[in-house]
């Protein structure tokens, strides 16, 4: 546990298989941006890293097909696979940090990501209908690919998705009775009955169209400095909730490592003092 940590709250707004929207409270913009960057480039996922071509009669060069294969999102089980540099094989390559996929096709046809056959049934293309290449009559494509676990810092193909945030809106109403404000707002944040009321606060993007259009200055729009609305869109390798959970673990590990190094540096080793025996010199 890290000393002096603040209490952070998470409230889910919406959740699907590939998208997650939530409000993160009790932090500042520095923490929010740090978490966002970790989600983008420090979450390990599988991606094709090396391709051996046995036969390629298509119109595309080997390098182009290899590049396309590398960008196909592969479903990843974070409990089974880990990065090569942290694996017990010490980067040599084993079942814990890499796997093999093969592809064999004959034209005429369009080769899709679904044609990739994996040695691990849990690992497969997240979007099987992604086209790779078109083969004409008599053309063949045969290859073997090696997928490894990596992070977005190494290559964008290892990025698990998109993550972005915005400040939580704060709207103060002081008895505004202007009907037009509800229609002016592009995000339909307000509704009007007897007076102007907030209907969908979360939709507000802080454009301040309502504040600028209000003649009696009864509306004030500002951004919270401690609450943020996060959106996570997964590319399909892992679920958005896994991206968030893993990012929090990575951040906690970084803070613990920083605290350890800082404490270790403060505890400077004491210099050893050498003692000499003092005695009478013998006369020659």
Would you mind describing this structure in some detail?
By secondary structure, the chain is an alpha+beta fold. It folds into two domains: 9-42 and 161-234, 2-Layer Sandwich (Gyrase A, domain 2); 45-158, RNA Polymerase Alpha Subunit, Chain A, domain 2 (Beta Complex), CATH 2.170.120. The protein has a four-stranded antiparallel β-sheet with strand order 1-2-12-9. Strands 3-8-4-6 form a four-stranded antiparallel β-sheet, covered by helices on one side. A two-stranded antiparallel sheet has the order 5-7. The radius of gyration is 29 Å and the shape is flat. The protein has helices at 29-41, 62-70, 180-184, 209-213, 240-266, and strands spanning 9-15, 19-25, 45-56, 98-106, 109-112, 117-118, 131-135, 140-150, 161-173, 190-192, 196-198, 219-234. Helix 1 (29-41) crosses helix 5 (240-266). The mean pLDDT is 90.
In short:
The protein has 284 residues and is an alpha+beta fold. It has helices at 29-41, 62-70, 180-184, 209-213, 240-266, and strands at 9-15, 19-25, 45-56, 98-106, 109-112, 117-118, 131-135, 140-150, 161-173, 190-192, 196-198, 219-234.
Mean pLDDT: 90
> Which ranges are low-confidence, i.e. pLDDT below 50, for 5 or more consecutive residues?
none
CATH fold-type name of the largest domain: RNA Polymerase Alpha Subunit, Chain A, domain 2
Overall structural class, as computed from helix and strand content, comes to alpha+beta
| Helix and strand run | EEHEHEEEEEEHEEHEH
Give the spatial strand order of the biggest sheet: 1-2-12-9
Cα gyration radius (Å): 29 Å
At the first level of CATH, the class of the largest domain is: Mainly Beta
Considering the protein shown, what is the CATH homologous superfamily of the largest domain? DNA-directed RNA polymerase, insert domain
Hey, roughly how much beta strand do the residues contain? 25-35%
Major sheet summary line: 4 strands, antiparallel
Examine the secondary-structure arrangement and name the CATH architecture of the largest domain: Beta Complex
Characterize the overall form: flat
